[in-house]
Amino acid sequence: MLSEVRYQRIKRLCCIESPVPSQCIQFKTINKPDEKLRSIAQKIVLQMNVKLGGEIWRTNIPMKRVMICGIDVYHKTEKRYNSIAGFVSSLNEDQTRWYSRVCFQMIGQELADTLKLAFAQAIKKYREVNNFLPDKIFIFRDGVSDGQIPVVSEHEVEQLRSVFTDDYKPQLSVIIVQKRISTRIFAEDPRSGRIVNPSPGTLIDYNITSRQLYDFFLVSQHVGQGTVTPSHYIVAYDDTLMKPDHLQRLAYKMTHMYYNWSGTIRVPAPCQYAHKLAFLTGQYLQEEASESLCNRLFYL
Q: Is residue 75 annotated as a catalytic residue, yes or no?
């Protein structure tokens, strides 16, 4: 049995002390009959492939010179710092390679101040890889409650925009993603007349949306049992001049790009990557991983 302490020690060794992508497998996971073991082994090998830099699928995103970022926050109970933010940004036009940084919010420090530094590092890394800067930047911000929306819209956005200079002012869109909501959406089966879950890709941007906000609801997953919960997207800032329809398609396409699951997930992939990064750092590492791993998905 792999204990929490042993797992923590392995991850600290492989992520900080002697940085190398690592994969832990519990015996009970692979102690299965042959017919189940094949499927399990395939998933483990795919995960290892991704950690080593593999790009196992992609979606067609017609826009060029685009960088897509994800931010999520892990809240610590210790008193040294308030929370840890994972910041993940894309490095190529196919949105299949990712750069990651961790932001520690110390006591009395604004989270936006540390996000600003990570954002500047991500833009610099994008230029190193592509030899040009992105023209459009989309940031999907997870981990925001209704009461924190004004803080993100008024303070965080301004801090992120302050990274730009007179010589470099890309178009920016900041989208808040909420998955813990009480809203439920239903559809009527045209053949039987029964009330069913809506199909993946169902989007609602009128009637039940806010009058004060630029928002929409998106159902991105298929649910076999129970009621599907949509995700709520709130556009906190946008100067990209994109049509709402195109922005909504981008959000849905990005739910297909999470390499730890063969289907769609509830939030865009960079949000889930940022969540995994922040959780690993806060729960086990307690400090940022080695710089040499920052362009790998080592935290899956």
A: no
Locate tokens 């042993």: which residue? 6
Burial class (CB in 10 A: 0-12, 13-18, 19+), 257: buried
Active-site position among 110, 113, 205, 238 = 110
Catalytic residue, candidates 142, 156, 215, 288: 142
Query: Is 215 part of the annotated catalytic residue set?
Result: no
Considering the candidates 156, 215, 256, 275, report the single residue annotated as catalytic.
275
Q: Is 142 one of the annotated active-site residues of the chain?
A: yes
110 is catalytic: yes
Q: What is the mean pLDDT of the chain?
A: 90
Residue-level pLDDT at 109: 58
What pTM, to 2 d.p., does this model score? 0.94
Asked if the model's pLDDT at residue 190 lies above 90, the reply is no
- What type of residue sits at position 156? E
Q: Which residues, in sequence order, are CB contacts of 140 under 8 Å at separation 6+?
A: 68, 69, 70, 71, 175, 177, 251, 254, 267, 268, 270, 271
pLDDT digits (tens, 9 = 90+) for 99-133: 999 988 776 556 777 889 999 999 999 999 999 99
Residue 13 is predicted with a pLDDT of: 95
Q: Please check whether residue 145 is in contact with residue 120, taking contact to mean a CB–CB distance below 8 angstroms.
A: no
User: Of 72, 156, 215, 288, which is the active-site residue?
Assistant: 72
